[in-house]
Sequence to fold (908 residues):
Amino acid sequence: MNGLVILDRRRVLAGGGALIVSFSLSDAFAQDQSAAPAAPAPSSPGSLKGAPFLDSWIRIDADGSITVFTGKAELGQGFKTAFQQIAAEELDIPFESLKVVTADTRRTANEGYTSGSHSTQDSGTAIQNAAAQVRALLISEAARRLNLPVENFRTENGAVIAPDGQRFGYGDLVAADMLHVQAQPTSKLKDPATFKVMGRPVPRVDIPAKVTGGAAYVQDMRLPGMVHSRVVRPPSYGARLTECDTSAIEKMPGVVKVIRDGNFLAVVAKKEFQAIKAMAALSAAAKWKETPGLPKQDDLLGVLTGLPSQDSTIFERSNSSAIGQKTIEATYTRPYQAHGSIGPSCAVAQFTDGAMTVWTHTQGVYPDRQGIAEMLRMPPSSVRCIHVEGSGCYGHNGADDAAADAALIARALPGTPVRVQWMREQEHAWEPFGPAMVTKLKASLDGNGVIADWNFEVWSNTHSMRPGGAGAMLAAQHMAQPFTPPTPKPMPLPEGGGDRNAIPIYKFPNAHVVNHFIPDMPVRVSAMRSLGAYHNVFSIESFMDELATAAGADPVEFRLKHLDDPRGRDVIESAARGFGWQKGKKAPRDRGFGFAFARYKNLAAYCAIASEVEVNRETGRPRLVRAVAAVDSGQVVNPDGLINQIEGAIVQSMSWTLYEAVTFDDTRITSTDWQTYPILRFNAVPDSIEVHVINRPGQPFLGSGETGQGPAAASIANAIANATGKRLRDLPLTRKKIKDAIDA
Amino acid sequence: MITLKVNGHDHRVDADPDTPLLYVLRDDLALNAAKFGCGLGQCGACTVIVDGKAVLSCVTPLLLLEGKQVTTLEGLGTIEAPAPIQRAFMEEQAAQCGYCIAGMMMRAQALLQQNPKPTDEQIRSELEPHLCRCGTHMRILRAVHRAAHLMQTADASTVQRSAR
Fold:
């Protein structure tokens, strides 16, 4: 770092006032670069790229109180605590002495969506660097005051310490807009060996309120004068409201208003249960014209491969010297699956003096604001979206739709805060599902049992129909002057959507990967935890076991034989060791061992999972008995938080893999509650899950919230195959399918 | 008007007798812990204790509760002075989103009041009506075991707590 770019606020200000700041700094950077023309200017780390001013991330008040701002939303993954650790570490202040403010269009940077395991990678990195640079600014300010070189100063416990022991509290050092300066491309980060807070299992800041009945969720908000609303959704996609006599409903106890706008129907009442009763009456009064348009649920393979697709080869490698001798093929399918948050979607909105405020558990306050503003034909500057936690979020669920519902209803009741919560059956029928998928694999082994060629094809819809425009929100689609849903687009690689993790991480001399992107969406779909990676990793890692069997090789050894990536090898070896995996070791009777591995998106966290599954041969019922995972997510911020995420990923993915499929007839979604969409219950919970964390001090944070989904599915499938001798490729791997396979 | 005893206090509630207890707790008494999850008795998020037994408040109408003792998570302890079950869930970090947790804790509390030393199998079986979507089950089980232990040493833990 060059002395020229030390951000001396006063010197900068002397150049001509606040507006000049960024230009002054640009000049400084330009000069700095000219001094070393050979080195290209590194771009700012993480989300500092989009929001370069330090005070977008960190505010220090004169009384010394410190606030950290993130544009990401806490979804139950615990990053709020992790970010507090990161900031405390790099600012050199006690963990308890700062607070973290999350996504709010008036207060925080626009960090898009909280998705794709990007939070710590993007926002955490921004906060880490911003905090380090703020600390450097504070040191230089203290040095300036004493007219001594900065090297003689250090920080401790929220103060800069001068060589003579004099302490300058951060609040005393910070001047009005001293932090309103652009971040530099590089920061002097702390040596991980000196970490006091980062890398430690600090208890989560949100848990105490959650286990004592504190107000912790948007569902718990109670604004003065707040009324309750319920929406009556159409019975099926595209259904049109033909008749609805609302007069009797308007006279029901507590009813404040019935709202009808085209096919959008809602009722508002003073109390929540009054709203629910009125909703039931309104639902009975509404007559709809429905049009059958859903595909055949029992032939998703035929449906998906039969729809028009945009095909592209996304990976090609060839080496004619590798010759395959034994070829095998397999087709894997995944049904539509639901996020199924335990708490149905909810939002609170208030329309006052021409301004709309929406409290929402959305993953993206800025895109939501854009969609709501467009729907209401208001300027985005008149709409504020504030993130408040909701029930667990595993992707694009009903949160954005509920936010739009609340805004549309609140506009009809100026000044009155309106709370909307969906009913269970609305959540189950109307949330955007994780898309159904098909993969076809074909590979050959050479004479040494090594994979010589690999062919992979994937068929899928888009995995993101998130807002940005109003057309992505149900309320806007149902209004009398409706907005049409945006044209679906494939998500670009390297992260990808349906083709996420479709490109193998293994070294195959010949490889050919094709993405069949299907624009037509007969079922409402969008992002669900890990997107296409869940099915692609399930397919690749199941097929690796099929190939290992064909080669007569041990599954762990077979993977290692095809993998160069040293960090990948480390997690595989760590999980295998923790599990007690031994070549040729047989599982106890009616049990099987399984193994799987992936690096999420081929660029985020590494995860390997070994599992032991028991299969009841009489009923076909499978149970995951134990799982041992190893994960490498780079520099670990909070090991317990990371373990919690991986444990959760394994259990949730097990539920998807063994039980879950959205059901429908030709017109309606028929899986509308927990009876018709069963998920894991306690009788299927494993005896143990063990997670081994491989810390990489000083390495970049690697997103880990989704890395377990694919490996868990394949590990379980491989263990079932090991237990039964039968390979199942059509998700979910239900007891009936297992029983049928055993009996076949 | 119905008189409802919640967390040791009498409340005069002006709600229709068919109103499920859940809405009275949340809407009339401004209590947060019991959650709306399904309204169908399928998920357990709304669980509270009535006369010592775990009850699904989303399907229990107010008219059945006259003269009974209702306990919610708020009635067990506070952030400053958490009950053993609350301490146990904090110490095990047994939550991800946490939406289902209050219901789980109430059923576990009811179990531990009946059976202070449940086996792992008994805990799993008791929690069968409850769904968790984040996959926090392993920690929930550990937390219930820990709560059982803490309750048995409640006196000692009270001393510890006040010493903190």
Chain A has a mean pLDDT of 93. The CA atoms of residues 153 and 405 of chain A lie 55 Å apart. DSSP finds 19 helices and 24 strands in chain A. The first strand of chain A starts at residue 58 and ends at 60.
